[in-house]
From TrEMBL:
Organism: Neobacillus bataviensis
Domain of life: Bacteria
GO molecular function: DNA-binding transcription factor activity
Residue span(s) of domain HTH deoR-type: 3-58
Official protein name in the record: DeoR/GlpR family transcriptional regulator of sugar metabolism
InterPro entries: DeoR_HTH, F-box_dom, N2O_reductase_NosL, WH-like_DNA-bd_sf, WH_DNA-bd_sf
Length: 191
């Protein structure tokens, strides 16, 4: 079966079932998971499907509203949202930096800008210049690992002193959230 035929079949399955794991798609086609990842890459880039924890889900026009996170479909949290503006001038909204960083990792070459909000001051900042605090003991009831953004290293360190966690720069934060998503640590980013 050709990749285009597999892609059509994946879309068909997802329209019926909503979500599928990479392992399940691999088993159904009797191909490697790496082949499945190559097959879904264009579908992800075209925003026909959405990457989830361990799999993919179908994006219908009704499933993603302007009030839902593009990545996990949770209701947007105005306390610490993130946005990606692509080179094609589309805007993707995320409930939190966790989801924004994961999506950035998926479409990095197509990103024109990635912006977030300073957690304390609520000012809009470039995510590439921000400081990211992972694992603070401050529960916002959002995706895990929880990630908070700060414009200033001084404020990030002060918040860290009170609530713990690890401060990372942008590239480190992208790698850390990706590692935790794919590694043994798991992720609370479920639909």
């Amino acid at each position: 079966m050709l990749p285009l035929e597999r892609q059509k079949q994946i879309l068909s399955w997802l329209s019926e079932e909503g979500t599928l794991s990479i392992a399940e798609i691999s088993k159904r086609f009797n191909v490697s998971e790496m082949t499945v990842y190559r097959d879904i890459k264009p579908l992800l880039e075209e925003r026909k499907i959405n990457k989830t924890s361990g799999g993919v889900s179908f994006i219908s026009n009704s499933s993603v509203s302007s009030h839902s996170c593009t990545y996990c479909l949770k209701e947007l949290n105005n306390r610490h949202p993130m946005q990606i503006i692509t080179i094609h001038q589309t805007v993707e909204q995320f409930c939190c930096p966790h989801c924004g960083l994961l999506r950035y990792k998926d479409i990095e070459k197509n990103v024109s800008q990635i912006i977030c909000r300073d957690f304390l001051q609520q000012t809009t900042i470039s995510a590439k210049l921000a400081y990211f605090l992972f694992g603070a003991d401050f529960n916002l009831n959002c995706c895990q690992p929880q990630v908070l953004t700060f414009d200033s290293l001084k404020y990030a360190e002060q918040f860290q002193k009170g609530f713990g966690g690890t401060i990372l720069r942008f590239d480190q934060a992208v790698e850390e959230v990706s590692k935790r998503m794919n590694g043994d640590m798991g992720c609370g980013c479920h639909k």
